[in-house]
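Newbie here. two chains, one complex. Structure please?
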Amino acid sequence: MSMQPLRRVMSGLKGGLLGALAVTVVGALPAAAQAPAAGSAATLDAIKARGTLVCGVNTGLAGFAQPNSQGVWQGFDVEYCRAIAAAIFNDPNKVRYVPTTAQSRFTALQSGEIDLLARNTTWTLSRDTSLGLDFTGVNFFDGQGFMVKTSTGVKTAKELNGATICVQPGTTTEQNLTDWARANNVQFTPVVIERLEELVGAYAAGRCDAYTTDVSGLAATRSSQPNPAEHTILPDVISKEPLGPLVRHGDQRYADLVRWVHYALVASEELGITQANVAQMAANDTRPEVQRMLGKNGGLGQMLGVSNEWVVNVIKATGNYGEIFARHLQPIGIQRGPNALWTTPGGQQYAMPFR
Amino acid sequence: MSQTSTDPRHFRAPPKRQLRLSWADERVRAIVWQVVIVGIVAGVIWWLVRNTQHNLEVRRIATGFGFLQREAGLPIGEHLIEYTPASTYFRALSVGVLNTLKVALIGIVLATILGTLVGIARLSKNWLLAKIAAVYVEVIRDIPLLLQLLFWYTMLQGLPAPRQAMNPVTGVFLSNRGLRLPFLDWQVAHSWALLAFVAGLFGTWLTARALRRKQMADGKPRPLWPAALGLIIGLPLVVWLAGGAPTAVDWPALRGFNFQGGFTISPEYFALLIGLTTYTAGFIAEIVRAGILSVSQGQWEAAQALGLRPGVVLRQVVLPQALRVIVPPMTSQYLNLTKNSSLAVAIGYQDIVSIANTTLNQTGQAIEGIAIIMAVYLTISLSISFSMNWYNNRIALVER
């Protein structure tokens, strides 16, 4: 057994306490040292002065955020950190990644430990209002589902009456599960473990009959099992899970930048701007919206507090939304589905106009 | 002898010293320093509280304990009191406190028994037994508790699935879902019998005291066991028979995914209990060994020379003196065990920390959540400390 899980569990345990302490102590410092604290309108300036973006990501979820064998963070959420760093610094590598657990993520952002939380977090009313945080958009439309061992022969979620179900605590997943079970009169025994690795381990070892989380997470877990065919994701989707990046409440200028980086990724896909052709399009494309987006005119970048070539820098670094999706999520078996562009049937990804 | 001295030094109060407002006066200096230090501490606390309030307001983070009355909606696998996801956060947290107490109290009892046995074994003249105890203590003490918990939990997951459950005795099933035992279909008569059992224990204790007083008076030892047997076994039996002698048993049976009925010990609880018990027992063993070794050999020999039997020597001579050394550090171990139970989060046993963490995550009220956890542990720990201190004072040797 390596020491890795030990360290991670300890950090998970400390998350809540550190957050509480941070709220108590941060901001007690003189105003000058208080730059990253919430409520101040200077997050972007603080990031520029520091020279790096501090980005909170998952501790390890295949396809979304996971270090590769060289220790470089990769994934769908990680690309958002890289895109924002590219927009600010024209360098997608000026990011420091902070792994956060389901429980430590909000306090990490509240306390100013991270500038951005890009960690498959569901947008809900209570989170939007009571945490002192703001959601900047939906970069992934998800829904909660169940995964079972194929050998159990379970075909729909309602057959899970009497089952033991593995679930991560401190997430909307837990609440959706109980809501759904009450609505459908399904009795179940929960096994609640915070660390994803231990939870998936318990499911794989047969401690639970089913494992529930967002379908994207199920697909990621299934793909990382030794034999994915042994596991089946049930067709039932029991909730809406719009996932998106979060920033602290009160700094609208910085929130605007994060929001528009997402729209830039989606709009680039709409307009056919890709990592390969972005330089050439910036030089030659005559469509007015493309010219405004890629900084030829309009001064849109300045309005956001970054250089006018920000979209060029972002797309050079990460490619457009469709490219990011194809690179990280399609290999683990997640289809575009609702995350296709609005121009395709069933698609919901829609960018606000660049003008 | 009465004191009838006429010497004025025996009854006259010492002359009052004038308090001079001068730095040279030791008492003035002491008062000034105390005021300054209390002032600094109060100032720091006031500053932290004010900052916290200010920051919470600026960040628009909700405050207060109003959330305790809201519906929790979180699933809890093990609960000693009635709980459904429709219950309030307060109820959910109470379940968490009871779960913590359940593992801490049983853990303390088991760790004390195991630790005492190992501690005595380490002093044994049997070479093998002594070495085994020594190896146990060294290995258990030197591995972090969290790793031990993960080890036990992983081991328990290696048990077979419910359908292939081990079935050593009729009605007992051991699988990776835990240990299922048949349990009495609980009736009112059982509650009365249980009450009679507790009353029997108390009666036995009173009898033992009365018998000891008589022995002190005339020196003749009297047997306790007939009264104990009657009170502890007989009384509950009579009550149970009078209640109609219900014998229905709730047998566990495999239905659908899992066993239904009976009584379950979950793998999470079991792993935590074994981990805490074996770990703490390693430390208790050393305390017990130190305590027994602290009683000088002369005491043993002197007691034996008086013709006392070995059991009496241990009970009446050695143990009272050893306990003086054993009890204070034992309190620390009990506190450690209780606090270490918060590692339950790692293996999915829903104790107070686990449930409070989920609560603070769902409500976003970290400060209140952490305050609740701290208050719970402080209350449990202070209760243990007080009762152990009371016990320590009781057994302390009275110096004459």
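Moderator note: The domain at 4-140 of chain A is CATH 3.40.190.10 (D-Maltodextrin-Binding Protein; domain 2). Chain A has three domains: 4-140, 144-239, 252-339. Thread marked as resolved.
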